[in-house]
Specification:
This protein folds into 4 domains: 110 residues, Udp-n-acetylmuramoylalanyl-d-glutamate--2,6- Diaminopimelate Ligase, Chain: A, domain 1 (3-Layer(aba) Sandwich), CATH 3.40.1390.20; 122 residues, Beta-Lactamase (2-Layer Sandwich); 128 residues, Alpha-Beta Plaits; 90 residues, Arc Repressor Mutant, subunit A. The longest helix has 34 residues. Helix 17 packs across helix 19. A 5-stranded mixed sheet has the order 1-5-4-3-2. Strands 7-6-10-9-8 form a 5-stranded antiparallel sheet, with helices on both faces. A 5-stranded mixed sheet has the order 12-13-11-14-15, with helices on both faces. The chain has 20 helices and 15 strands. With 512 residues, it is an alpha/beta fold. It is elongated, with a radius of gyration of 37 Å. Pfam families: HTH_30, PucR.
């Protein structure tokens, strides 16, 4: 409990008396200060007991009001006037008492037998005792936290000890923000509303932390882990310096527990690695595949293969993926990390978190019995991913577009302009090129082109006739159709490729 004015009045040796604002004596005192300035407010930081003998203070009502207002605006807790026969005042003057009462600023008086230094010593002794008590409480709370962490009852026991000691809610999540344990009313609701904050901290790994205001409550997020991010701690509530000191110990204890869990899961990771090997074994039936996935805790109608070439320790990447993805089916083969995940998993989010910047191929979503095929396609995309500088996803009917997007913008644009430039000049609105592109996409269907563009079938035919006249190309000639298709796709791809020759693309590579 903070040291208050009423506590100071209880010290008989100081012989303090209350002259004004008796109802405000519960104010805390942070320090003691002596000043004879008429405007001392600028020299205050807040919470001070300000002492004066009123040497320069004129005793008219307006001057006293201005003086008291300045002291109060400076944040002082109370004003102490020294009285004595050789001092300006032998009792508190009425204008000063009235001004203090109006402002609600406690005014105390002290006789000349008690020097100001005695009050200063009393205040600082009380503050030192208060801080010593806070530290003792923090150490005792830390002892209880350590005992809870060592009890073998896991994260929840440690969080409960924290909440009992501080009253601050807490939650531990995995690196993707999924809750593992929590204590405190409203903590889980605050966690749901803090998704953006958690993601920002998680992306920075062990170097990140962040604060925010959620539902009018202070929220703080800290990373957990020793050398790699193993989880996140969210605290909800205001923390004083002693509680914040205790929070540092809490982070350490929770990090140790998550590291212990990580090491304890090593046999489980080896088991899941063996399951993945069985899953990809040639000749495994669909029923056996589903049983293997169920054994790993992954019940799904579709899966995807992922192949990663890590530049860091591959075993760490496998461990992170095993923690992050449902089922945890991951292994290292020939320096490449392979994983099979559910078809509905946000693969890019997981990769951005645990394998940022690594060449990565993502196989298509397939039935579980075709997991090996998806993984094979994922490995086949690693070379393209190395060139692209980002993950590449396999998807039907997009391989040609991907290859174009890996080309050089100047070359692509130049080829497209050479083939389509006459159409651009003849029709600046772009209707001719758009109609041609739609007609090629629909495999030459007049009706489907008409439907997609929202124009009459005859309009489509008239536009395409004009295309042939302007370009000199025949749409019934395979080579001409291919040139036109390539020019249109090249122009589209040029918008996703770098401006400098040979540079890596800056835009995400779309599915292939």
């Amino acid at each position: 409990m903070p040291f208050r004015i009423v506590d100071l009045l209880d010290l008989p040796d100081l012989r303090l008396s209350v002259a004004a604002a008796r109802d405000r004596l519960d104010r805390p005192i942070e320090a003691a200060h002596v000043s004879e300035l008429l405007r001392p407010g600028a020299w205050l930081q807040g919470g001070e007991l300000l002492m004066t003998v009123g040497l320069l203070l004129p005793m008219d009502r307006s001057a006293c009001r201005a003086y008291v207002h300045d002291v109060d605006a400076g944040g002082a807790s109370c004003l102490v006037l020294g009285l004595g026969h050789e001092l300006p005042y032998q009792e508190a003057p009425a204008p000063l008492v009235e001004a203090a009462q109006e402002a609600g600023l406690p005014l105390l008086t002290v006789p000349h037998e008690v020097p100001f230094i005695a009050i200063t010593k009393a205040v600082f002794a009380a503050r030192a005792a208060e801080q010593r008590l806070a530290l003792e409480r923090a150490y005792e709370a830390q002892r209880r936290l350590t005992a809870a962490a060592a009890s073998g009852r896991g994260l929840t026991a440690t969080l409960e000890a924290w909440a009992q000691a501080t009253g601050v809610g807490a939650a531990v999540t995995d690196p993707l923000g999924r809750i593992i344990a929590s204590v405190g009313r409203g903590t889980e609701a605050a966690l749901e509303a803090s998704g953006d904050l958690i993601q920002r901290v998680a992306v920075r790994g062990l170097l990140g932390s962040g604060t925010s205001i959620v539902h009018s409550a202070h929220v703080e997020v800290q990373p957990l882990g020793a050398q790699r991010l193993r989880g996140l701690l969210m605290l909800t509530g205001e923390m004083d310096p002693a509680t914040r000191l205790l929070a540092s110990g809490l982070v350490s204890l929770l990090s140790l527990e998550l590291e212990r869990r990580h090491l304890a899961d090593e046999p489980g990771r080896r088991r899941r690695c063996a399951l993945l090997g069985q899953l990809l074994t040639e000749g495994t039936t669909a029923e056996q595949v589903r049983d293997l996935l169920a054994a790993a805790g992954l019940v799904t109608d579709a899966v995807r293969g992922i192949a990663i070439e890590p530049t860091a320790d591959a075993d760490d990447v496998v461990a992170d993926l095993a923690l992050a993805v449902p089922g945890g089916l991951a292994r290292v083969t020939g320096g490449v990390v392979e994983a099979v995940v559910g078809g509905d998993l946000d693969v890019l989010e997981v990769l951005n978190r645990f394998a940022p910047g690594f060449p990565t191929g993502i196989g298509p979503s397939v039935p579980p019995e075709s997991a090996a095929s998806s993984l094979r396609q994922a490995r086949g995309l690693l070379g393209i991913s190395r060139i692209a500088g980002r993950p590449v996803e396999a998807q039907a009917n997009r391989s040609g577009q991907l290859l174009l997007e890996l080309g050089n913008r100047f070359v692509l644009s130049g080829y497209a302009d050479a083939v389509l430039g006459a159409l651009d000049d003849a029709d600046p609105s772009g209707d001719l090129v758009a109609t041609l592109a739609t007609w090629l996409d629909t495999a030459g269907s007049w009706d489907e082109t008409s439907r997609r563009l929202g124009v009459h079938r005859h309009t489509v035919r008239n536009r395409l006739d004009k295309v042939m006249r302007v370009t000199g190309r025949r749409l019934d000639d395979g080579d001409d159709r291919f040139d036109l298709w390539l020019a249109i796709r090249g122009r589209q791809a040029a918008q996703h490729t770098p401006t400098s020759p040979g540079a890596a693309p800056k835009q995400p590579i779309p599915p292939t």
